[in-house]
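PROTEIN DESIGN WORKSHEET
SECTION A - STRUCTURE
LENGTH: 147
TOKENS:
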């Protein structure tokens, strides 16, 4: 839920700063790009923090080297977060982040089905997690392709 709160909260905050006079955020596209970036920086931070063991357990057994995959996806989230705020590469970053969301979704399915915990709390059930994933996917694609 924290990523959704970060996405929506920062989007509204950036837009509000644009509305009150900070011209850089005086449009929805820039505000959304930075909100998506903050969301991915937040999620990337879990790849090395105290939630790392939980993320490693989320990797389905069919995938080799879960520790490496968690590290790699964390770096890709950071790279995507940087890229999404650079207008010239934003569409490419959006495609990359969309593919990353799709690639990581099996870990969310695995966590929901096995009733794993994240930071001591149960993983989000599959239906709400799927809906969240669709919201994140829409935000990423809008951020990358909205003019």
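SECTION B - SEQUENCE
RESIDUE ASSIGNMENT:
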């Amino acid at each position: 839920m924290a990523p959704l709160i970060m996405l929506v909260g920062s989007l509204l905050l950036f837009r509000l700063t644009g509305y009150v006079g900070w011209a850089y955020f005086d449009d929805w596209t820039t505000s959304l790009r930075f909100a998506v970036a903050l969301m991915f920086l937040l999620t990337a931070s879990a790849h090395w923090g105290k939630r790392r063991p939980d993320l490693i357990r989320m990797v389905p057994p069919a995938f080799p080297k879960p520790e490496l995959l968690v590290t790699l996806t964390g770096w890709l989230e950071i790279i995507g977060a940087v890229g999404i705020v650079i207008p010239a590469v934003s569409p490419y970053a959006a495609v990359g982040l969309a593919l990353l969301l799709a690639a990581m979704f099996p870990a969310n399915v695995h966590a929901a089905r096995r009733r794993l915990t994240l930071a001591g709390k149960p993983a989000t059930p599959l239906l709400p997690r799927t809906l969240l994933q669709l919201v994140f996917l829409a935000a990423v694609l809008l951020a990358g392709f909205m003019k």
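SECTION C - NOTES
The helical segments are 2-19, 28-45, 52-58, 66-84, 90-114, 126-145.
The mean pLDDT is 96.
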